[in-house]
UniProtKB/TrEMBL annotation:
It comes from the Bacteria. This is YbaB/EbfC DNA-binding family protein. It comes from Nonomuraea monospora. It holds the Pfam family YbaB_DNA_bd.
Length: 143
């Protein structure tokens, strides 16, 4: 929309759209940053939680873990951490709408898409602010 086509009566709508877009983006960022994951080993002797970045946050060993051989315990820990990371990835994927044509997407692709959305939002906001500035100038010229 060019500033010539813009009607000052549309200003309220433009501001509402901008505020809604900003709230939605902020909400999505907050939700993505709070997604954690939990998992446990096949035997249940080890449980783990990971943060939104997939980093280990908590590791809990059941009492029976102390009776395991070191190699067996190591495998149980790896299983629990991987299960927690998989859970965190599933929760992240569930939050982000993905086009059916894209199929399965990696977390790196999700991050790339999110960055594109954020860049697009920033460009849109700059355009809207330029339109508002043009309206302000026109209203000053009309007075």
């Amino acid at each position: 929309m060019s500033s010539r086509d813009f009607n000052p009566d549309d200003l309220d709508g433009l501001l509402r759209d901008s505020e809604r877009s900003l709230r939605e983006l902020t909400s999505m960022i907050g939700e993505l940053q709070s997604i954690s994951g939990a998992g446990e080993s096949r035997s249940g002797a080890v449980s783990a939680t990971v943060d939104a970045n997939g980093r280990l946050d908590r590791l809990k060993l059941a009492p029976r873990a102390s009776r395991m051989e070191l190699d067996e315990l190591t495998e149980e820990i790896v299983q629990a951490v991987r299960a927690a990371q998989d859970d965190q990835a599933r929760r992240t994927m569930a939050l982000i709408p993905v086009s059916p044509q894209l199929g399965s997407v990696s977390l790196e692709e999700i991050q790339r898409q999110f960055d594109e959305i954020q860049d697009s939002f920033t460009r849109d906001m700059h355009e809207r602010m330029a339109d508002l500035e043009a309206i302000r100038r026109r209203s000053l010229e009309d007075d």
